[in-house]
Amino acid sequence: MRKPATGRQIAVVGAGPAGLSVSHYLARLGHQVELFDSRAKLGGLNEYGLAAYKMTGDFASREVGWLLSIGGIAARCNHRLGRDFSLSQLVAEYDAVFLGLGLQAVKPLVLAGEDAGPVMDAVDFIAELRQAERLDQIAVGRSVVIVGGGMTAVDAAVQCRKLGAREVTILYRRGPSQLSASLEEQRWAQINGVNIRCWASPKSLLAEQGQLHAVRCAVTAERGGQLVETGEYFELAADLLIKAVGQQLGPDDLEGLVLQDGRILTDFEGRTSHPRVWAGGDCRFGSRDLTVEAVEHGKRAAFAIDAYLMGA
After folding, report:
1. Which of 92, 100, 90 is nearest to 20 (CA)?
2. Given Cys at both, which of 42, 127, 233, 304 links 15, Cβ 3.0 to 4.6 Å?
3. Do 203 and 111 touch, CB atoms closer than 8 A?
4. 204 near 236, Cβ under 8 Å?
5. Percent of all residues in the chain with a pLDDT value above 70, rounded to a whole number
6. Phi and psi angles of residue 68, each rounded to the nearest 5 degrees, phi first
């Protein structure tokens, strides 16, 4: 149930777990929320970032529907910060602003001959699958190489196997103990026929007549606490390369907010270096990139914003 209307308006940018959480709690407290998202659908990670085989039916959209049903939240899809509006505009037009931007840009992976064949970002690949009406219409290679060691790499790899790829290999430049994917996720990949090859770093793509046929890799090792290449090389058959090497803040207009290690610096309650701007979720410095943590960020920020606006 919503409290009586306060007459205060808050702009929330990003409709992922953090943005949806803060919007719902602010609406419960009687505030009016304008929720902006750059995509066509709300939901963020749950709608676009989780492998299709992990989600059932329209779970993500039903969850969004429930969160918005409280009232007091107006959604604005296909609106991107830095393209359709600026942070300074939001600060001028609203009583407070919350940024739940996530990490939408993929870190670069510079390879010799990268234009020689199909190269995809894992996040785009997974998002395409989630929005596809029929999975059998998604093209996937027969031999797929995925670069990265996290859960996104596992999601992309298992999805490729389920779509019919014969050989799927995850390449990771460090040792097995340093994979960021959980042991359960690693076992799940191996159960589904995915090869995990550690101590290997891709160096170049090899092609014939414009078609990718292999990835040339360097063997790596750790010496004196430093990752080095040993001078040994090998080639791995591939007709598709998928990048899953992590994400970073996109080219959004943050207008002077203080960053640390590429993410927005905040206090415990999510307040940024601007007194009327809060942030939470993956874009916030110190985030562990967990959905449950992003939801908590949103809840905590909502109460802090309410206290600030109501003079508590």
Report:
1. 100
2. 42
3. yes
4. no
5. 89
6. -80, -15
Domain with CATH 3.50.50.60 in the chain: 9-104+249-310, 107-243
Tell me if the pTM is above 0.85.
no
Residue 138 predicted with pLDDT over 90:
no
- 82 dihedral zone (left: phi>0; alpha: psi -120 to 50; beta): left
Confidence band of 61 (pLDDT split at 50, 70, 90) = confident
Instruction: Give CA separation, 224 vs 200, 221, 229, in Å.
Output: 18, 10, 13
Q: Please answer whether residues 163 and 135 qualify as being in contact, where contact means their C-beta atoms are separated by less than 8 angstroms.
A: yes
Backbone angles phi, psi at 234, to 5 degrees: -150, 165
DSSP designation for 306 = H
The Cα 220–Cα 146 span in angstroms is 17
Region at 193 (left for phi over 0; alpha for psi -120 to 50; beta for the rest): left
Amino acid making up residue 131: Q
CATH code linked to domain 9-104+249-310: 3.50.50.60
Residue pair 238/120 in contact by the 8 Å Cβ criterion: no
Quickly name the fold that domain 107-243 has. FAD/NAD(P)-binding domain (3.50.50)
Is 134 or 4 the better-scoring residue by pLDDT? Answer: 4
The values of phi and psi at residue 52, to 5°, are -60, -35
E strands, the chain, are 9-13, 32-36, 73-76, 96-99, 105-106, 119-121, 143-147, 167-171, 194-197, 200-208, 211-223, 226-237, 240-243, 247-248, 259-260, 263-264, 277-279
Helices (H), 34-181: 59-68, 87-93, 122-131, 151-162
pLDDT band at 174 (very low <50, low <70, confident <90, very high): very high
CB 109 within 8 A of CB 243: yes
State both tokens at 273: 């270096």
Task: Evaluate if residue 48 carries a pLDDT over 80.
Answer: no
